Amino acid sequence: MKKLIFFIVLLPLISLMSCHEKGLLQPPFTYIMSPEDGDTLHTPWPTFYFKSLDGADGYHLQVDDTTTFKTPIRENTQIQDTFYQIRDSLRDGKYYWRVRSREGGLYGQRSEVRNFYILTNPYAVTGYTNVIGYARDVWVEGNMAYVAASEGGISIFDMADPGAPLFVSRWDDTLKQYVARSLFKEEGSSYLYLADDDGGLEMLNVAEVDSIYFLFNSWNRNCEDVWGTKLNDTLFLFVADRDDGLYSFREGPNYLVELSHISTEAELYGVYVKDTLAYLAVGELGLEIVDISDPLHMTPVATLPLVGRARDVKVQGDLAFVASSTGGLHIISVSNPSSPVLLATIDLRGYSMKVAATDSVVFVACGSGGLRIVDVSDPSEPKLIGHVDTGYSYGVFIKGDYIYVASREGLYTVRRIF
């Protein structure tokens, strides 16, 4: 009887030793290292790190958006190293991960479960306000944001706190059924200029922001855009008339003087002036450059055909950026204005309407595509680095750390969050 009891006690120990010799014991717990619990990662392809275990011949990793791991969204049972980078990108959101080792066909205990966040879009909406009418353009000076809102006229908001815009006043032009499209304001001036479609170029006094009043109207037929520049200490305005081409005006006290006109070969939608050159977004033609050093005698310099329908243009340094409807964003070298060179085009998967630019980043209002952000630090290889849902977006303006977006849904403020 004693021999039988001894054998019964000894048998499991012999089996255990045998299993150990054959590598059949369940491998121990695997310790995970990175990402740590609650980490925020700015890449859609995270890399996971865990500690090695003596004798382990592989690891099994699971990633899921729930803690149940019933149907892991990413899983690999054949990992040979103590790190693993996901090949198929993860969307922005919260995720959970765990890992276990494998030795001789047996899996070890699962690690603890950790969570992490994927946040790849460096820009986000930080403020919003409703606007009467469809916001088509926005101009910001100091703490005031002026919004051209189609049939809704012009609304002014106090942006002292960009995250919480405060309504100040509104100038209502609806009785004339015009469409407030685009704005220009010289810094420190009491005058605000409005491209008001059939209402032409309108000159408004905004010295008292809570009491805007009308001063002068040019009566151009289809006024799409306006930009101004000072030449010999006098402000000149250049107006994009959709059907008639480019007009020039001289600013006077409470009035404007029309100076000259130059036709374009296609519908003119956008104008931007730098130094003594006007850059024109000419619909189906593309980019046109005009010498405006003498506003009385404007002369064409060059044209550059572009894919799509050119809607807006801005110039930063020696680069011109053209928002070209379904043609995306064109990046053009204008270091030699008489011979502009197309460097690159990027498809923005939207209807590119308006553009604003810094030295290395371009912001494009893309209609139903919202706001698209493009890295142009290498102009020949632009990269889409962000997309913000700002509704059906028409206009965009940069002021300090904030990007202001005029949208069908209202006025958005956007900023970089990492």
Question: What does this protein look like?
Answer:
With 418 residues, the protein is mostly beta strands. 5% of the residues lie in helices and 50% in strands. The chain is built from 1 helix and 37 strands. Strand 29 (329-333) and strand 30 form a beta hairpin.
Q: Which parts are unreliable, with pLDDT below 50 for 5 consecutive residues or more?
A: 2-24
The total strand number stands at: 37
Number of helices: 1
Query: What is the typical, i.e. mean, pLDDT?
Result: 91
Structural class: mainly beta
Sheet having the most strands: 6 strands, mixed
What percentage of amino acids are in beta strands?
over 45%
Helix content: under 10%
Keywords:
37 strands; 418 residues; mainly beta; six-stranded mixed β-sheet; four-stranded antiparallel β-sheet; single chain; disordered N terminus
Task: Describe, in short, the structure shown.
With 418 residues, this protein is mainly β. It has one helix at residues 2-22, and strands at residues 32-34, 39-41, 47-50, 58-64, 74-79, 83-85, 93-103, 106-107, 114-118, 123-129, 137-141, 144-148, 154-158, 166-171, 182-184, 191-195, 201-205, 213-217, 223-231, 234-241, 245-252, 255-262, 270-274, 277-282, 286-291, 299-305, 312-316, 319-323, 329-333, 341-346, 354-357, 361-365, 371-375, 383-388, 393-399, 402-407, 410-416.
Q: How are the SSEs ordered, and which strands pair?
A:
Layout: H1 2-22, E1 32-34, E2 39-41, E3 47-50, E4 58-64, E5 74-79, E6 83-85, E7 93-103, E8 106-107, E9 114-118, E10 123-129, E11 137-141, E12 144-148, E13 154-158, E14 166-171, E15 182-184, E16 191-195, E17 201-205, E18 213-217, E19 223-231, E20 234-241, E21 245-252, E22 255-262, E23 270-274, E24 277-282, E25 286-291, E26 299-305, E27 312-316, E28 319-323, E29 329-333, E30 341-346, E31 354-357, E32 361-365, E33 371-375, E34 383-388, E35 393-399, E36 402-407, E37 410-416
Parallel strand pairs: 2-9
Antiparallel strand pairs: 1-3, 3-6, 4-5, 4-7, 7-8, 7-9, 10-37, 11-12, 12-13, 13-14, 15-16, 16-17, 17-18, 19-20, 20-21, 21-22, 23-24, 24-25, 25-26, 27-28, 28-29, 29-30, 31-32, 32-33, 33-34, 35-36, 36-37
